[in-house]
Specification:
Helices cover 50% and strands 15% of the residues. The chain is flat, with a radius of gyration of 36 Å. The chain is built from 29 helices and 20 strands. The strands form 5 sheets. Strands 1, 2, 3, 4, 5 and 6 form a 6-stranded mixed sheet that branches. A 5-stranded mixed sheet has the order 12-16-14-15-13. Helix 6 packs across helix 7, helix 9 runs antiparallel to helix 11 and helix 22 crosses helix 24. It has 751 residues and is an alpha+beta fold. The protein folds into 6 domains: 192 residues, Hypothetical protein af1432 (Orthogonal Bundle), CATH 1.10.3210.10; 135 residues, Beta Polymerase, domain 2 (2-Layer Sandwich), CATH 3.30.460.10; 84 residues, Beta-grasp domain (Ubiquitin-like (UB roll)); 64 residues, no CATH class; 85 residues, no CATH class; 75 residues, Alpha-Beta Plaits.
Length: 751
């Protein structure tokens, strides 16, 4: 017991010495003494103790825990003095030992703000039922607002996990490990704190599954001699080759994978079958402008000596990861037919990776969550920049200029059952209601936020407790589309409005046909469709919609229909072939014969000319044949507008034979609408940037339209087949010349 007391006092002394040294340049001597007196009084006998319900070793006081957590925050997470002050005085201020105003006068507004944010984040733990939610760590990140608050919490959990053996009973250790595995280990990974993340996962496994942890640890110990011998047999020949070929300094080192990482692999294979327990890392000391050349030279040496697995080549030098990680990874067949991972990088690349960039985040199965991950990937760079500055003012300026406050694009709110729900920033009560269920959203009349009545327009904030009030008499209104911000709610409202609208359209359609019948007129669908198109309607539904909204005089239109119907009947009596169906076998000829007539009615700025005298009418392309510029095409009038089909569409014969009266002639604008079809094959370096550049070159050519393309890659090269429509004979030769001059392109051929 005496030894523990001495150790405890020594550790308190070391922590105090570090913190005093760190804060000495932050504030004056009098403020330091005042702060010391506050802490001593708050943590004295009868003052602040360990949190209720925890079983803590009597020799680890609440003050020691606080000081050592602050030391981790400063030494390992490199947090600034504002953060350390907020952490040190968090409980004294929150529990009323120190007044907010006194604290701000002594240390300024920034530590007080951090302290308040830390208090707000800690309140989440009162909602125990929400911690198991997959959105909880996002909620924590959003509510904390300042990333330093999250790092302070990580420092606290890391200390508790390291000392769990003395801080908690076995059951509580397991609870702590589960919480950290679920919440803080992923956050550490997302923040680029790779070393801390690995330590957390190993310790969590130790307490959650001690038998497996001990088994892997024992196996690693048992196989160490054999593993070292194998590494030597792999490295020695490679080192000899590198010494002969390289004229730059380098070093090789092995990296044994973490116990938790090996545990994940054991779920799929036996320990003896895990070939990549370690990785060989080759680190080159070269100037930045020579990095790529040097790394690929080493790759060539490695793969000349050992057979590579082409499916395991990862080139993050040509195209670095979004978080800045650069390295060249390959897996080769070593002695005894065992696969060995080799990582090739420079000192600069290695420094970035070792400072916390999560090099294997995709491989480990951590899925990106959009802009939040991109922001978090840059946090580590900010912390590194802070570490390099000795002056406190410089550190504070860097933190502020780097926007350490999270600009979250999502908010996280609670349902009445305590579940966490993710919504877009700016979401309203209506967004929340539709996120619960479409029927709930459609019948929402108001809501309650944190117990207070609010309207459906009320914007929600992080951490709100939300309840929806519904009524069976309620139904969606068109202005709801301007209230909601989530795509889900907007889509569902549109669907409901469309369904109601279509019901009204059916009524309008039935009314028109009934009035035609009352006039004792025949129903001529072909004539009716053509009249609506000539009146400027893009689809029959648009016509019926105007009828329901009283925008169109139905009686006047029926008079027009009756007049045109008489003209059609007169023409038919005189033998004119108006309104006849077109035989499928003559369809192509029809299109060809009508091209000259169509040209005369075309305007130069029209994209398509549909029927004689109809230009600028909106249309859509049929999905069944997907026509593109240059194809021979025709229009087909449907209830949802004019669809453009290719003349060789598999559905064309049936459409022409059965509903020929709906067919409209169509052509492309520009010249005579004719274009040559060319197939070209391009071979180049297997690099997405090269392919992107090639496609961009094609799309920039005004006389060239890209019909389709396909890309295959193998052995470090891509082979692309491109189908193009080109106007003018010199167009294709000029394009090929440009593509041949593009970086990374090896070969271009016309097929």
């Amino acid at each position: 017991m005496k030894e523990k007391k001495i150790d405890s006092r020594a550790r308190i002394y070391r922590s105090m010495r570090y913190l005093v040294g760190t804060l000495r340049t932050y504030t004056d001597r009098d403020t330091m003494r005042l702060g010391y007196d506050w802490l001593r009084e708050a943590y004295s006998t009868g003052g602040i103790q360990h949190a209720r319900g925890t079983t803590i070793d009597e020799h680890i006081s609440a003050l020691q825990l606080l000081l050592e957590v602050a030391t981790i925050a400063g030494q390992e997470l490199h947090l600034d003095a504002d953060s350390l002050v907020a952490l040190l005085f968090f409980r004294p201020v929150v529990e009323g030992h120190i007044d907010d105003r006194q604290f701000e006068q002594a240390f300024g507004p920034q530590p007080l703000r951090l302290l308040q944010l830390l208090s707000r984040a800690s309140e989440l733990y009162l909602r125990r039922e929400s911690i198991s939610s997959e959105n909880f760590h996002n909620l924590l990140l959003s509510m904390a607002e300042d990333i330093r608050v999250v790092l302070l919490i990580i420092a606290d959990r890391l200390y508790r996990l390291r000392h769990a053996k003395w801080l908690y009973q076995e059951e509580d250790r397991v609870t702590l490990a589960v919480e950290i595995s679920f919440l803080y280990s992923p956050i550490a990974h997302r923040l680029g704190l790779y070393t801390i993340k690995g330590e957390m996962e190993d310790l969590c496994l130790k307490y959650r599954d001690p038998k497996t942890f001990d088994f892997i640890k024992r196996k690693l110990g048992e196989t160490k001699t054999a593993r070292d011998a194998y590494i030597s047999s792999f490295v020695d020949p490679l080192k000899k080759q590198l010494d002969e070929a390289l004229d730059v300094p380098y070093e090789m080192k092995g990296r044994v994978k973490s116990i938790s990482s090996i545990h994940n692999k054991l779920r799929k294979q036996n320990f003896e079958d895990i070939y990549d327990l370690f990785a060989i890392r080759i680190i080159l000391d070269v100037p930045e402008q020579k990095e790529r050349q040097a790394c690929w030279q080493v790759y060539s040496i490695v793969t000349d000596l050992y057979r590579p697995n082409p499916e395991r080549l990862k080139d993050w030098i040509s195209i670095p990861k979004s978080n800045g990680y650069e390295s060249l990874h390959t897996t080769v067949m070593g002695p005894d037919n065992k696969w060995v991972e080799v990582q090739i990088r420079t000192k600069r690349m290695d420094a970035i990776a070792e400072q916390g960039v999560a090099a294997h985040w995709r491989y480990k199965g951590i899925k990106s969550e959009g802009g939040l991950d991109e922001f978090l990937a840059s946090v580590r760079e900010t912390l590194e920049a802070v570490r390099e500055h000795d002056q406190t003012d410089d550190k504070r300026a860097i933190l502020e200029s780097s926007m350490m406050t999270l600009k979250a694009q999502e908010i996280y709110v609670f349902t009445p059952k305590g579940e966490v729900l993710k919504l877009p920033k700016g979401a309203t009560i209506l967004d929340f209601a539709f996120a619960i269920h479409s029927k709930v959203g459609a019948s929402t009349v108001s809501g309650k936020v944190n117990g207070k009545n609010v309207s459906i327009k009320h914007q929600l904030r992080n951490g709100d407790s939300v309840e929806v009030i519904t009524s069976p008499q309620q139904s969606p209104k068109r202005d709801w589309l301007s209230i909601v911000v989530s795509q889900r709610a907007r889509n569902r409202i549109r669907q409901i409005l469309r369904a109601e609208e279509e019901a009204g359209l059916d009524v309008a359609k039935e009314m028109i046909q009934r009035r035609i019948k009352n006039r004792k007129l025949p129903w001529n669908e072909a004539l009716f469709i053509r009249l609506t198109v000539k009146r400027g309607y893009k689809a029959l539904n648009d016509f019926y919609r105007d009828i329901t909204l009283d925008r169109l005089d139905a009686q006047a239109f029926l008079d027009y229909y009756e007049q045109e119907l008489k003209a059609v009947e007169q023409a038919q009596r005189e033998g004119a072939p108006l309104g006849q169906a077109v035989s499928a076998q003559h369809f192509t000829g029809l299109v060809d014969d009508d091209q000259e007539a169509l040209k005369s009615s075309a305007k130069s700025d029209d994209v398509l000319v549909i029927d004689q005298g109809l230009s600028g009418v909106e249309y859509s392309f049929a999905k069944c044949c997907q026509p593109v510029y240059g194809d021979q095409i025709f229009g087909f009038v449907s209830s949802r507008g004019i669809k453009i089909h290719r003349t060789d569409c598999p559905n064309a014969p049936d459409m022409i034979e059965r509903t020929g009266h709906r067919v409209l002639c169509a052509r492309w604008s520009g010249g005579d609408g004719q274009a040559e079809v060319y197939n070209i094959e391009i071979v180049g370096r297997d690099d997405i940037a090269v392919v992107t550049n090639v496609v961009s070159l094609i799309k920039k050519e005004s006389r060239v339209k890209l019909r389709s393309y396909s890309i295959d890659s193998a052995d470090g090269l891509f082979r692309g087949s491109f189908v193009l429509y080109v106007e003018g004979r010199d167009g294709i030769s000029n394009l090929i010349k440009k593509i041949r001059g593009a970086v990374g392109v090896k070969q271009v051929e016309r097929l």
